[in-house]
Amino acid sequence: MIIILKNDASESHVEEVRQILNERQYGINEVRGVEKTIICAIGAPDADKPQVASQLEAIPGVERVMAILKPYKLVSREGHPDKSIIKVRDVEIGGDQLVVMAGPCTVETEEQLMKAAHAVKKAGAHILRGGAYKPSTSPYSFHGHGVEGLKILAKAREETGLPIITEVLDPRHMDEVCEYADMLQIGMRNMSNFQLLREVGRSKKPCMLKRGQAAKIEEWLQAAEYIASEGNFDIVLCERGIRTFETATRNTFDINAIPATQALTHLPIVADPAHGTGMWQFVPPIAKAAVAAGADSLMIEVHPEPWRALKDGGQSLTISDFTRLMQEIEPIAKAVGKHL
Amino acid sequence: MIIILKNDASESHVEEVRQILNERQYGINEVRGVEKTIICAIGAPDADKPQVASQLEAIPGVERVMAILKPYKLVSREGHPDKSIIKVRDVEIGGDQLVVMAGPCTVETEEQLMKAAHAVKKAGAHILRGGAYKPSTSPYSFHGHGVEGLKILAKAREETGLPIITEVLDPRHMDEVCEYADMLQIGMRNMSNFQLLREVGRSKKPCMLKRGQAAKIEEWLQAAEYIASEGNFDIVLCERGIRTFETATRNTFDINAIPATQALTHLPIVADPAHGTGMWQFVPPIAKAAVAAGADSLMIEVHPEPWRALKDGGQSLTISDFTRLMQEIEPIAKAVGKHL
Amino acid sequence: MIIILKNDASESHVEEVRQILNERQYGINEVRGVEKTIICAIGAPDADKPQVASQLEAIPGVERVMAILKPYKLVSREGHPDKSIIKVRDVEIGGDQLVVMAGPCTVETEEQLMKAAHAVKKAGAHILRGGAYKPSTSPYSFHGHGVEGLKILAKAREETGLPIITEVLDPRHMDEVCEYADMLQIGMRNMSNFQLLREVGRSKKPCMLKRGQAAKIEEWLQAAEYIASEGNFDIVLCERGIRTFETATRNTFDINAIPATQALTHLPIVADPAHGTGMWQFVPPIAKAAVAAGADSLMIEVHPEPWRALKDGGQSLTISDFTRLMQEIEPIAKAVGKHL
Amino acid sequence: MIIILKNDASESHVEEVRQILNERQYGINEVRGVEKTIICAIGAPDADKPQVASQLEAIPGVERVMAILKPYKLVSREGHPDKSIIKVRDVEIGGDQLVVMAGPCTVETEEQLMKAAHAVKKAGAHILRGGAYKPSTSPYSFHGHGVEGLKILAKAREETGLPIITEVLDPRHMDEVCEYADMLQIGMRNMSNFQLLREVGRSKKPCMLKRGQAAKIEEWLQAAEYIASEGNFDIVLCERGIRTFETATRNTFDINAIPATQALTHLPIVADPAHGTGMWQFVPPIAKAAVAAGADSLMIEVHPEPWRALKDGGQSLTISDFTRLMQEIEPIAKAVGKHL
Fold it and tell me: What part of B 126-185 touches A (C-beta under 8 Å)?
């Protein structure tokens, strides 16, 4: 931690800084520059740090406090240089295979899901996605079929052999969802629902943590740290677009986040171009871009008839569009050392 | 709903649009301009609309779909032109009184809270704030004392007569928090935790809904609509800063949101300059600005010793700074037709 | 400058860092923490610094480089703790008077400008604004009457005695604009037009520098530094809203920027609520908020008939709305120690 | 144009709307929905529209005005469905060849440029880049060698045969820069420098228009329209990252902008991953992503010794990194139907 003092900081303020650091057992190294004096605070247990920075900022003589250490440990690549491989049944995310998760936004009917499941399987997908519990901005939208949806997903797994991923959004649904799902999805609205994150950690189920709409990468990794701190390391991250000023697309897919996250963490990263763009037309080029940038996995929304979808019709691929995309992605995966 | 067709939309695509609208019982009014054809879709039940727009966007001949109606009803000012007044015990938010909520970020010890409670009461605050359950970006931070904190808050109410507001962040804590609190706070991370919003709606307790860090005003009002749709209309909104590119302050307090929100909803609005700036130095000027812009209430973090605070020390006022602020605010409140 | 080394930085990389710092005559202070090693670079001439940080980042063993010193000197409050007062003829900006600049977005006709000029003078404004050269997002919009507009402005000054402020947007117009204007306005699109900034610096005319739509406060102050570095210190800054994700208002007026900027620079600050909101309805509350937050001056767009305005009709006040605003602002100005 | 009326709009306000539309020769089509009345305004000359929307918003009975037509014509794909191919000497941008522009940020010395020029040529680049006039956030940074830099660039063209692209940032430099350059670069800070855009339009030189840091795609295309409206259609667009809340990378490369822009305009699009990320480590993955997403061209900063670069060292590739990147890109280009 670096504490930058104001030019006119009184000695009593500086002394207060020293005292707080001493009490928290930091080592102190003061560096007097030509214009500024800074204090380098060394050591001390992690749990203490977030609050100490804020305490120091409360002292009038302090101009700014800058963190040096990363605020996450377990998911950091620094202590764990090898990439993690997360197993979902027999599918491995994070290795040489580019894992494709596909399926409809929401389980609407058994017929709809089975049709989608068989089609994505045929086109080469590895994991089936589908929502049973769905968050919606409007209270008047469809919110999923709940446990009935989970049962239909399980049936689709039985028929196709594909492992299933589905969203959990309430700690009170954990048991239910864990009974059916192979992998838990934590949606972007719940990235900072720390109660839920802890429960997912305790469940020990493989999980996919979507990035919050306005979450910095550092905050996203701290959310993953919540899960890991409960003993669950089977975490994959999912970039799904961030909120910016641009309105030509629903979100801005943060392609930089793929290499930037991989540099910071050993966890694999999934790209979700449907939410990342909000428009089906742009899903194929952004899916390809994500693979070229080094994504470990893709999540694609596929619906037999997007114009009848109960949610997200406008960002879902038709079966034929998805099938074509799988073919087009193959040489790109190969170019970056992966296979489908 | 306005559907803008592509210039090269085929007749079969346009026919599909018409068919979907007919099935959902919309009236249709086609307007052929010099360059563009648009379809105005009229009527149909609300619950249907979010999904229909997305379905229409899945049709290749559709360029864009634009909503005309607001996606919230119960909290809209259109159907309810008079401002609502929300009662928290005998305090009225939304009327002529500028209601000040003050207290520490977190209940740390009984001594700390009592000291803060008596001080803010003496300075003229109307409601006592204090966190018992605290969300934190880092899993290694302090997360509050839970029910013990609630009990200390209740004791402070007894001693000072101030109603208390405290955060609820897990549906499983609802009963506990409702037993002690006079007003529920929904934090910015939970603005889109729809499960929690529904429970708050069912509780019928007065509540304060903080704006999400990247929430558009329209989305914020839809979150309020979740609460109202369960029959709880005792909602106040709280602007606490949004996330932008600026890093000189922790968040950007969206002062525009005060009049913009008041134009759209009958619910009162609270300003939280501590989170809105992240820096104690800027709390007084932004608090004054919020009052001048027409805020119904202020929420101010006050700590006897900010440099010892377990959370948010850097954005908390000392007791003497808070006392001075209360004095400085009075003439501004008066200038906009309010009193303290 | 603080250089944070990667945990696995090789000694040869660290040696390269030291060498670059030595060559640029920095002092070096290495601080070895428990997990990280950092290098504090001390001293060295300013002009060298922006490039050195980028050079150091090119070395593979370097994790990050953090600046400690502010990248501006002349406009910094550190070396100049007293606020500056800028004189525009006999009007002083930055003192006890809340200076109001008002007038139409654009000079359209002599009749329109004279009507507006007399009205704003009568209502108590101190400086007349009006555009002769206007930037427009669309090439097909009105771009102002150029020198003819300047002459009309000069005539209005003669009639009303109000000093005039008008925008300059091309270095080739400098002489012309300087001949007529009392104060030069640099628009938000030109905040980083460094050629223009240098010319304004050389002109020695009082000037108002609008903040770029996506400019951090630090960048804005560096833009002011360009002007100051040519010897012109008669600079006022103008906050006019930044671009964020919110679409309910055209821009987000950054109220935080008022105290945050005043903490960093001795230059006065003007608030422009018309551009800051983009909607006439919200101009009065935001104008009041800016005064309460400590703004030194307001710039208000006023038009005799906004629904006939050739530009910015939707964010202009009518004469009667402006007159009422001036009355409402008075007690707020007084509450913060200013007078109109 | 769609005018949405307020529910409580008085008949006199609606009449005012009709009158303004009539005067501007719009056709009027009123659509009365269940809750809202809207007015569809049809036709009328383009030049009139930006101002009319703002005028209508000034009428109290108007809730909102929504544009239907795109605010650009000449660069729109609607009237020009075939992609444009821009010739820079014998290099064609927009066709089957993935055109690579490479070279140092800035011309520092003849030796440095020649070394870089020969190296990028050898690695397969098609156009040489290098700055002679450089904008810089700080007035104390290096600003380029001006005409001396242009002469060195011309010499490098002579030696390597590569056409050269260089930035022009002041209308007063136009003749000079046009004398030497094969292609003009308009930097992100000048995207809305409309005076400069018009001069570039008049020059008839091929040009590359970088996106402003906070420019919506629609505004970017209007900037291109400025150039086209002066008769110069030899425009390529350059996505170089936008400003967002994320601080892990310098900018957020907007990969969505590649397909989104191609859907709206016939102009080719270049990707600049150096500015798009600000970090050399991330340039290769983002360059590959851009190609996979369909970019027509890449601009890459290459420096013989980035740790000695006078500008942008931290985002420049070494010659060997660039050479490797060229090899890695080839199969990706091929996968999307292009060749190097």
Answer: 135-143, 169-172
User: Which residue does chain A place closest to D264, by CA atoms?
Assistant: A248
Question: Residues with Cβ < 8 Å from A193, sequence gap 6 or more?
Answer: A169, A186, B189, B190, B193
Distances (CA, A) of B169 to A170, B108, B166, B228: 11, 18, 10, 18
Sign of CA dihedral D4, D8, D13, D14: positive
Could you please report the per-residue DSSP string of B235-250? EEEEE--B--S--SSS
Could B55 and A279 be called an inter-chain contact, meaning their C-beta atoms sit closer than 8 Å?
no
Contact indicator for B124, B340 with CB cutoff of 8 Å: yes
Average pLDDT, chain A: 95
Question: Which helix (DSSP H) or strand (DSSP E) does residue B11 occupy?
Answer: helix B11-23
Sign of the dihedral defined by the CA atoms of residues C194, C195, C201, C203, in that order? negative
Examine the predicted complex and report whether its ipTM is higher than 0.85: yes
CA A160/CA A173 separation, integer angstroms:
25
> Three-class SS of residue A129?
strand
- What residues in C contact D310, CB-CB < 8 Å? 51
Torsions phi, psi of B264, nearest 5?
A: -105, -25
Half-sphere exposure of A15 (CA within 13 A, CB side): 3
> What pLDDT was estimated at residue D22?
92
Which of C138, C194, C311 is closest, CB to CB, to D135?
Answer: C194
| Angle value at C-alpha B16, between B12 and B17, nearest 5 degrees | 120
- Secondary structure of residue C163 in the 3-state scheme: coil
Name the token pair of D221: 């295309």
Tell which residue, D284, D292, D235, has the closest CA to residue D258: D292
Q: How sure is the predictor about B306, in pLDDT bands with cuts at 50, 70 and 90?
A: very high
One-letter amino acid for residue C41 of the chain: A
How many beta-carbon pairs under 8 angstroms link B with C?
128
Assigned token pair, D335? 């996968």
Alpha carbon distance A186, B278 (integer Å): 28
Phi, psi angle pair for A271, to nearest 5° = -110, 135
Q: Which of A32, B223, A212, C51 is nearest to D314 (CA)?
A: C51
- Which among A35, A65, A250, A251 is the top mutation candidate for probing chain C, defined by the most C β-carbons within 10 Å of its own β-carbon? A35
Tokens 């706070």 identify what position? B185
Q: Which amino acid is at B172?
A: R
Give me the half-sphere count of Cα atoms (radius 13 Å) on the Cβ side of residue D200: 34
- The answer to whether B38 contacts D38, with C-beta atoms less than 8 Å apart, is no
Question: In this complex, do B281 and C293 lie within 8 Å of one another by their Cβ atoms?
Answer: no
C-interface mutation test, from D21, D51, D52, D242, most C Cβ less than 10 A away: D51
Contact C105, C314 (CB under 8 A): no
Answer yes or no: are the C-beta atoms of A63 and B321 closer than 8 Å: no
**Chain D residues within 8 A of B36 when measuring between CB atoms:** 68-69
Contact B101/B297 with Cβ under 8 angstroms?
yes
Contact D322, D117 (CB under 8 A): no
| The model's pTM | 0.97
- Please tell me what DSSP assigns to residue A59: S
CATH number for A2-66 (one of 3.40.1110.10, 2.40.50.140, 3.20.20.140, 3.30.70.1140): it is 3.30.70.1140
**Distant-in-sequence, close-in-space partners of B111: CB < 8 Å, separation ≥ 6:** none
> CATH 3.30.930.10: does it fit domain B86-335?
no
Cα D126 to Cα D129: distance, rounded to the nearest angstrom = 10
Q: For A172-229, what is each residue's pLDDT tens digit?
A: 999 999 999 999 999 999 999 999 999 999 999 999 999 999 999 999 999 999 999 9
The owner of tokens 């650091």 is A21
**Domain residue ranges in chain D:** 2-66, 86-335
Q: What is the DSSP string of D174-203?
A: HHHHHHH-SEEEE-GGGTT-HHHHHHHHHH
